[in-house]
Amino acid sequence: MGLNQNKKKNSLASIDKNIQSLRKKIRRLDNKLVNLVSQRMLLTDQIGKSKKQADYPVRNIALEKQMLKDRAAWGKKMKLQPQFIKSLFRLLISYSVVRQQMIIRGR
Questions:
Q1: Residue 9 is part of a domain; what is its CATH number?
Q2: How far apart are CA 16 and CA 6, in angstroms?
Q3: How far apart are the first and last CA of the chain?
Q4: Burial class (CB in 10 A: 0-12, 13-18, 19+), 23
Q5: What is the tens place of the pLDDT at every residue in 7-64?
Q6: Measuring CA to CA, how many Å separate 83 from each of 71, 76, 92?
Q7: 59: part of which helix (H) or strand (E)?
Q8: Residue 58, H or E segment
Q9: DSSP 71-82
Q10: Interval 48-80: pLDDT, tens
Q11: How many Cα neighbours within 13 Å face the side chain of 55?
Q12: pTM
């Protein structure tokens, strides 16, 4: 094997190591993200219980719209696409609504 081929092989090995290290960091962040989503859902469950006691509706569309606007602005400040952030939070809201509906229906 020639000198250039050895350098290329060593360079690729170094790149592979770097990729694996970055993926490990992503896994740790993903774990934290899942934990945060779980904590968020527990809080929305508590809100659902309070709504049930007060006979409030599950949805507050005006609040949801404002929340999406605020979160999109937060994302934009962090160089994230506002539409991505809105999509992410729409998903979180949808799941929160399902959970709160189950609480209100007594399931």
A1: 1.20.59.10
A2: 15
A3: 68
A4: exposed
A5: 777 788 889 999 999 999 999 999 999 999 999 999 999 999 999 999 999 999 999 9
A6: 10, 10, 14
A7: none
A8: none
A9: HHHHHHHTT--H
A10: 999 999 999 999 999 999 999 999 999 999 999
A11: 0
A12: 0.85
Q: At what angle do helices 61-77 and 82-104 cross, to 10 degrees?
A: 140
Contacts 24+ apart (CB under 8 A), 78-86: none
What is the separation of C-alpha 47 from the centre of its chain, rounded to a whole number of angstroms? 20
What total number of domains does the chain contain?
A: 1
Residue 85 has a CB neighbour count (10 Å cut-off) of: 19
Distance, in Å, from the CA atom of 48 to the CA atom of 41, rounded to the nearest integer, reads 10
One-letter amino acid identity for 7?
A: K
| Residue 71 main-chain phi, psi, to 5 deg | -65, -35
Residue 94 structural domain: 3-104
